Amino acid sequence: MKTRGFERVTAYENAGIDLPLRSTVHAAGYDFIAAETISLNPGEIKLIPTGIKAYMQPGEVLYLYDRSSNPRKKGLVLINSVGVIDGDYYGNPDNEGHIFAQMKNITDQIVEVAKGERIVQGVFAPFLLADADSAEGTRIGGFGSTGA
Ligand SMILES: O=c1ccn([C@H]2C[C@H](O)[C@@H](COP(=O)(O)OP(=O)(O)OP(=O)(O)O)O2)c(=O)[nH]1
Ligand SMILES: [Mg+2]
Known about the structure:
Elements: E1 5-8, E2 30-33, E3 38-40, E4 45-49, E5 52-55, E6 60-66, H1 70-74, E7 76-78, E8 82-85, E9 100-105, E10 111-113, E11 118-126
Antiparallel strand pairs: 1-5, 2-11, 3-10, 4-9, 6-8, 6-11, 7-9
The structure holds deoxyuridine-5'-triphosphate and magnesium ion.
Protein name: dUTP diphosphatase
Keywords: Hydrolase, Nucleotide metabolism
InterPro entries: dUTPase (IPR008181), dUTPase-like (IPR029054), dUTPase-like_sf (IPR036157), dUTPase_trimeric (IPR033704)
């Protein structure tokens, strides 16, 4: 039975991408790795592909958090602070639910993210609905797909 977890997206199926892993027994975060080597110019913001999509139960979300070591060790920050990966992003017809980490180079030098390097961590969590919630429809894409 599938409850929640990770799969590779088709485009990276044979790219040798490891599925996200926790590094210790009590770790909350599943570490995602970069699916490609990417170079960021000083101040530049880029979407780093992870090659991964995540499935989950209704009422669950996957939060993407920065690694605490990124700013000082890599000179990178997750520039949208926290990535909210919705359950209906998985398998969407636009990009299959491919999860990206939106990183900014905060240094004055080029920063390279190597393929296979751990870049962000994902934490599954439950969420609550407001009274009289009236959401309908399903997601097609991400990063502004629902309009301005
Ligand atoms: O760091 C992130 C944040 C989001 N997403 C994907 C999954 C999420 O379900 C979708 C939409 O994210 P969000 O709702 O935060 O962005 P938006 O700017 O509101 O875009 P949309 O109009 O598509 O909802 O984009 C990522 O891959 N990485
Ligand atoms: Mg949105």
